[in-house]
Design goal:
Shape: elongated
Number of strands: 12
Strand order of the largest sheet: 1-2-3-4-5-6-7-8-10
Radius of gyration: 19 Å
Number of helices: 3
Largest sheet: 9 strands, parallel
Order of helices and strands: HEHEEEEHEEEEEEE
Length: about 210
């Protein structure tokens, strides 16, 4: 196979394919502004470093996981409600109107425009990961079980932690000095490169770095 067109044609003619990944080594410079129609039974789609891509074709109802990274011109994204995992990174032009209602896992990376990008989080979301995003947090749904914040300038939480949260992971948040009251449901609190002294609710506590 000599170019992206032949690679894509090979996979797309096999409608039983459930996973398709486009990485720089196989898609540049052949990838244009759009993709051909996707396999009808596709469950996972990964697209990395596609600067010409401005949109995706209609995603099949079978899709469960989508990962998009470093697609600077991607502007629109229609996601079916069947999607349960979404990873977005370095998408400065993207604006999302809604998120899938069945989404349970969301990872956002290197998104300085996160406040403009992100609509309200779905009610069934269980895992939220924020990596290298501004010190801004959306309203967290009660369904959330795991929250990870990494490489953030966040100074304090402006939202309450869900009452059912079980895992709270804070990494490389050197300015964070205040947390809201911690829910009794918490099983794991992991801290790395954060201040030793915190204010939790109205109480000053000393937390050992791990």
């Amino acid at each position: 196979m000599e170019n992206f067109t032949e690679v894509a044609a090979y996979f797309w003619q096999h409608q039983q394919a459930t996973t398709f990944a486009l990485h720089p080594s196989i898609q540049r410079p052949y990838l244009d502004a759009s993709l051909p129609p996707l396999p009808s039974k596709l469950e996972e789609l990964v697209v990395c470093q596609a600067p010409n891509l401005v949109g995706l074709p209609v995603l099949p109802a079978s899709i469960k996981s989508v990962e998009l990274d470093n697609c600077q011109n991607l502007k629109e994204l229609q996601l079916p409600d069947t999607l349960y995992r979404l990873v977005l990174g370095q998408l400065p032009s993207l604006r999302l109107r809604t998120l899938p209602s069945q989404l349970t896992s969301l990872s956002l990376r290197n998104l300085p425009n996160i406040a403009d990008l992100l609509p309200p989080l779905p009610d069934k979301l269980e895992r939220l990961q924020l990596f290298n995003t501004p010190g801004w947090l959306p309203k967290l749904p009660d369904s959330l079980k795991m929250l990870t914040i990494s490489k953030s300038p966040i100074m304090k939480f402006h939202v309450q932690l869900p009452s059912g949260l079980e895992h709270l992971i804070l990494e490389d948040c050197p300015y964070l000095t205040r947390l809201p009251d911690l829910p009794a449901s918490l099983k794991i609190v992991r801290l790395s490169n954060t201040p030793t002294y915190f204010k939790v609710g109205e109480t000053v506590v000393s937390l050992l770095k791990q």
